[in-house]
Request: fold
Amino acid sequence: MESLFWLFPKEGALVKWGYEIIASQDGRDAWEILQQADAPRMAILDWMMPELDGLAVCQEVRKRDDHSYTYLLLLTSNTQKAERLAGLHAGADDYLTKPVDLEELRVRLQAGRRILDLETKLLAAQDSLREQATHDALTGLWNRAAIVKALEQERVRANRERTSFGVVLADLDGFKLVNDGHGHLAGDRVLEEAARRMRTAVRAYDVVGRYGGEEFLIVCPGCHEAEAVTIAERIRASLERAPIEIASGEAISVTLFLGVTMGGTQGTDEPIRLIKSADTALYCAKNRGGNCVELAIPDIER
Reply:
């Protein structure tokens, strides 16, 4: 935990209590420090400082919406209620009157730590809920709602920038036989490993999601037809190249059939139409015997 102070004479006590000290020479220097990416999350500010006073620093800190919360403790020699309320209204979390009582300072800082710890836990819980809401629990890929949203976002971007993008729908060939012949735990293992191989086969900015069951949807920004097919072929080859281990000493071969379509060239392609086009190409690939890639052609697309 870090603490920011302005010419604070009790530095030794703060260090003894486990705080790392970052010193500020005046209010403007304090404000610059508090804007940094690794800024302290606790600050002890004197009301009376050159350049910017503590009140102004508090106000500037509270205007931000792109930083984690900063706990602000304001020091003042003014004991009037109106002045103390003005400090709290400006954004200070607490205040101490000077001369500072060390025991009271320690307790106020402990309260600040508790508030920051609670914020950290709250943010972690929010991140966890966001992850659960947007990701498939088994594979860790984007879930159906999130991948369709990513497709719509790419469609809007491509139309705005007049570029094209690829949409790939992939299906594990004979997956039902895996579940029936080896059990659902083996099926889960196949899905997990298939997802991992897909992520390594695509480009860093391609988006992979589990569309449903054993189907996967991949959005490939900035692609022409040949590039989209190449990505689909890499995905196919990533599954074909080696069996998937489902138990100690036991592995099975798994293949994909994939349908590819293009978006961004028509300007009116809704996600449902793009997915339908890729799905039609997918079944063309399946009818060819699987383990292949099929590109949607205009009469298939419409």
